[in-house]
Specification:
Length: 379
């Protein structure tokens, strides 16, 4: 099997797995317990908090662990709205956000919150000028993702953050696809909230990360005990948190070299497919993008059919976000780029990761070209 859908999830790294395993068996204490077994678990959680904070330029006290990126995104949006519930609220986001942001915003609209969904250009990039133009007297939050999960386009978060600095407007970025793959520093980005997820950078599933700038108030997500400084009640997922700490540390240490390798694999993939299928198009920004992700459109065929033929050959790619797979609907991201419904349905996403090789990229090129030819012959 060749797994090339790392934007959906990643294989846990050997080091992260080895480090978390004792906390599933020998060191299985509750991190809130006061005896030695619990104290060891608590120390492990706090060590992971330091590892995560160091990776994104934050302080450990600014990091809260959640069950995943979706939970963290929902927490920011819902609790900002709750904080200003007695006031008129306006939120700015984009049309290509992850559904955990889009659906949270749509739910808030039902409760009277005004939401502006900014368009993107044909590369999937939000224009800073559009953000500036959308600001209103009651704008409380801007939420723009750092890198898109379907096309890999990186957004101008630093420029947006610089514009918002000094204004009474909170700034959140969904960095789930970015953390561990490109440099991320919360001070450089000038964000108030940042969200991430361990399983996107070779950690275990079930552990999310919320960065909240020091001094900001955020109502608790869950009520109960005093875990996570009273912000998120419930027994901590110690093993998952430990995996997140070591996985992010490992990803950061290898980032520059890994990005160079992944970009080379994407280049080989695109050039190889274009040689046999000149009409193939790259959806998204080919320059300001994640190193291992490429979204390809094929005229006149179904991306889903192509995906299934590749699956029969033991190759895993996707047609859209894993959160929307199985629905016979075109990608909202690709439609936002200006593509037609048919063009949006003709696309596949290939996302390489740490455990892919250059030889696998060559295998994928041949498999895609063969599958495409088979579909065309049967039309």
């Amino acid at each position: 099997m060749i797994y090339a859908d790392n934007a959906a999830t990643t294989r846990i790294s050997d080091r992260a797995f080895e480090q978390m395993l004792p906390f599933l068996r020998e060191q299985y204490g509750n991190a809130s317990s006061q005896y030695s077994l619990g104290v060891k678990a608590k120390r492990a959680v706090e060590h992971a908090r330091k590892q995560v904070a160091a990776a994104i330029g934050a302080e450990p006290s600014e990091i809260t662990f959640t069950s995943g990126g979706s939970e963290a995104n929902s927490w920011v949006l819902r609790c900002v709205a709750e904080t200003y519930h007695n006031e008129s609220i306006h939120i700015i986001t984009s049309t290509i956000e992850h559904h955990s942001v889009l659906n949270a915003c749509r739910a808030l609209e039902q409760s009277g919150v005004e939401v502006t969904f900014l368009p993107v250009d044909n590369t999937g990039r939000v224009l800073v000028e559009d953000v500036k133009a959308a600001i209103k007297h009651n704008t409380k939050l801007v939420s723009i993702m750092l890198a898109n999960n379907e096309i890999g386009t990186i957004q101008p978060i630093t420029q947006i953050g610089a514009f918002l600095k000094g204004q009474d407007i909170l700034f959140h970025t969904d960095a789930v696809q970015a953390v561990g793959h490109i440099p991320v520093d919360v001070d450089d980005l000038r964000v108030d909230f940042l969200t991430a997820s361990a399983h996107k950078f070779n950690g275990a599933k079930g552990t999310g990360i919320l960065y909240k700038r020091s001094g900001l108030n955020l109502p608790p997500l869950l009520f109960g005990g005093e875990q996570e400084r009273g912000l998120r009640a419930g027994t901590e997922n110690v093993a998952g948190i430990v995996s997140a700490g070591f996985a992010i540390e490992e990803s950061i240490s290898e980032m520059a070299e890994e990005a160079k390798r992944l970009r080379s694999m994407v280049e080989v993939t695109v050039e190889g497919i274009k040689e046999k299928i000149p009409s193939v198009r790259v959806n998204g920004d080919t320059k300001s993008c994640l190193p291992g992700t490429v979204n390809l459109g094929f005229n006149g065929i179904s991306g889903e059919s192509l995906m299934h033929l590749l699956d029969l050959k033991g190759i895993c790619v996707s047609t859209s976000s894993a959160c929307t797979s199985g629905k016979d609907e075109p990608s909202h991201v690709l439609l936002a780029l200006g593509l037609s419904e048919q063009q949006a349905k003709s696309a596949i996403r290939i996302s390489y990761g740490r455990y892919n090789t250059a030889d696998e990229a060559k295998v994928i090129v041949k498999a895609v070209c063969d599958a495409y030819a088979k579909i065309i012959d049967n039309l």
